[in-house]
Design a protein that fits this description.
single chain; mainly alpha; 3 helices; about 85% helix; elongated
Length: about 70
């Protein structure tokens, strides 16, 4: 059960980081320009928190490397 909960926490962090990226991409498409700087800063902080959670419960996955390639 404990391992399943770790997997679910990690999966939710994965979903969160991808949703943040989708939001940034959608904003860029709709504005035909980069998202506002405030959004970029806030999304970076949210992404960092999600990655810390993911690493805490399931370290050593490709998530951090994958997310780093988004930036």
């Amino acid at each position: 059960m404990k391992e399943m909960l770790r997997d679910l926490v990690w999966l939710n962090a994965l979903i969160a980081t991808e949703l943040i990226q989708i939001t940034e991409n959608t904003s860029q498409i709709l504005r035909n320009a980069a998202p506002p700087e405030s959004c970029i800063v806030e999304h970076a902080a949210l992404r960092k928190t999600a990655l810390e959670i993911a690493d805490r419960y399931k370290p050593g996955t490709m998530l951090r490397k994958h997310v780093a390639e988004h930036q």
